[in-house]
Amino acid sequence: MCRRPAIIFGGRVPEREPPAWIWLKERVARLRQPTAPVPVADEPLAAVVRTAVVTDSAAALPADWVSAFTADGRLAVVPMPVMVGSEIYGEGEDDITQTLALALASGASVKTSRPSPGQFEQAYLAAQRHGFESVVSIHISSELSGTADAARLAAARVTIPVEVVDSRTVGMAQGMGVQSAVVAAADGQEAAEVRGFAERRMERTKVYFYVPSLEQLRRGGRIGAAASLLGTVLAIKPILAVDGGKIVPLEKVRSAVRAVARLEEIVAADVASRPAGQQRLAVHHFGNQLEAEALAARLNEMCPDCPAPQISALPAVLAAHAGLGVLAVIVGESSTPTG
C-alpha cells in the first residue's frame, strides 16, 4: 500500500536491510561449503550449494553485498569496460566516478563495451575450482549490450554447465534477479530452478527513470523507441522505462520538477499494485546524490509498507549512457523463496 506517511529523521531514509538480504545472510551462515567436511550423524544436514552465480557490473549490486558473497566463489561480478577519451577503465577495478562525471560534464568522448569472453571463461573456471557443479550467468539486456553473447561464447569453452540468462533489463532490476539467484542457490536449488526463480523475479521488476537530457542516450545509440522524443527534446523532460529489454518513452513532461513528481506517482502506483509486504525499491543516481536521497525519502513516505529504498550511484557503464542528473527507480519484489 502507498497511503500513510512515515516519519523520516533528518530528511534521510533510515538504514534498513531488505528482508531478503537478512534471510540470505542467515542462510549462508548455516550452509556447508562444497568442500566442507560431512557433519556428524546427530547434526542436521544443511543444503549443499551446487550452483554459482555470475553477472556483470551493470547489475549495480551494492559493494558490501557483493563482498559478502564472493569470497567462497558463489558469486562473481565481471567488470564492464568504460572508455573515457583514450583510457579504458574497468567497473569495480578502477575508481572512475569522478573521471566519468567530468567527462560527461565537458562533453568528452565516453564509450562502453562488453567484457571479453575470456573474462567470463575465467569466472566459470573459478566457480569450477571452488567445487560448484554448475553456473547461472545473468547479464544486462541483449538489446543494450552484447555481454550475454560474450558469456555464451565463454560457456561453450568450459566443461562446467553454464546457463546464460539475458535479464532483459539493467541496474538493480538485473541485480534483484542476481540476488534471487544467489538466494535460490543457497537454498540448494539446481541450476534450472535457480535460473527460473531469477527470471520470474526479473520479469516482475520494473525500471523507471528520468534524465535531464537524451543526448548521452542518443550518442550511445541506446535510445531505442525513445528516439521519437528527440524532435521535442528541448521542450520536454522525458520519463523513460525499460520494456522488453529496450529503453522506451513513458511520458513527456514540461519541467524537471514535474517530471520527478510524476516519476514518484508512477512508482507509488506500481508498488501499490504488488503483494503487500513483498515490494522492494532501489534508487539510482549519478552526480546528484542529494536529489536521490530526497526522492527516496519521499517514496518512503508514500510507500511505508515497503522497506526503505536502497540508494546507489548508477554503475559507470550505465551512467555513461544516461548522463549526469539521472534518477532511476527500480520496483521489484522479495527475493526469498517464500516471498
From TrEMBL:
It comes from Paenarthrobacter nitroguajacolicus. NCBIfam families: DegV. SUPFAM superfamilies: DAK1/DegV-like. One of its GO terms (molecular function) is lipid binding. This is DegV family protein. InterPro entries: DegV, DegV_C, DegV_domain_contain. Keywords: Lipid-binding. Signal peptide: none annotated. Gene3D superfamilies: 3.30.1180.10, 3.40.50.10170.
